[in-house]
Amino acid sequence: MNRFDLPDNLPVPVDDDQCAHLKAGTKFPVDILIRLPTTSKNSVDIVSQPRTIIYFYPRTGEPDQKLPDGWNEIPGARGCTPESCGFRDHYQELQSLGANVYGCSTQTTEYQQEVADRLHLPFDLLSDAKLELLNHLKLPHFTLPELDNIPLIARLTIIIKYDTIEHVFYPIFPPDRHSQEVIEWLKQNPLK
């Protein structure tokens, strides 16, 4: 099974208001963000660019492992690898628009390191394995018994300007074109 191709019949996620509390103007918990382990072992750099993009995703799969049962039927679950590749492929343009980019999941840094290396990601993946951001921000999530009921963050993206939430994308579909959606938003909302 090719993890880069998305099936034609994926269910489209609907806005269930689970991100309604993440309003523009809300302070982002930068202290938690800076503590999160990263795939480069460096701390998060939220000040070198005026904007930081964090795309949250449920989990990436490993090439030789099958997807969890029912994964394609969970709205918004499938597509973490294509989404990451989109941010990788548009990384330079995102930086030219003044934005740092990070991916974040509840997987361990060791697990994330494999995908960062395999996909040649030019940005860090952040591990929220201790669920600090998930709990503090009350991020939407789901669990699967097959994956030991570890909370998996629903797909969403937060744009932070300095230390404040500027915009939230939720739900996201299709994930393989989401980076272009973020680029369009950045172009329509240039820094002042």
TrEMBL record:
For whether the record's keyword set contains Disulfide bond, the answer is yes
Source taxon at top rank: Eukaryota
GO cellular component terms?
A: cytoplasm
Domain Alkyl hydroperoxide reductase subunit C/ Thiol specific antioxidant: from-to ranges = 78-162
Against InterPro entries, the record matches this protein to: AhpC/TSA, Peroxiredoxin_BCP/PrxQ, Thioredoxin-like_sf
GO BP, sorted A to Z: cell redox homeostasis; cellular response to oxidative stress
What UniProt keywords apply to this chain's record, in alphabetical order?
A: Antioxidant, Disulfide bond, Oxidoreductase, Peroxidase, Redox-active center
Q: Name one GO molecular function term.
A: thioredoxin peroxidase activity
Name of the protein? Alkyl hydroperoxide reductase subunit C/ Thiol specific antioxidant domain-containing protein
Q: What is the lineage of its organism?
A: Eukaryota, Metazoa, Spiralia, Gnathifera, Rotifera
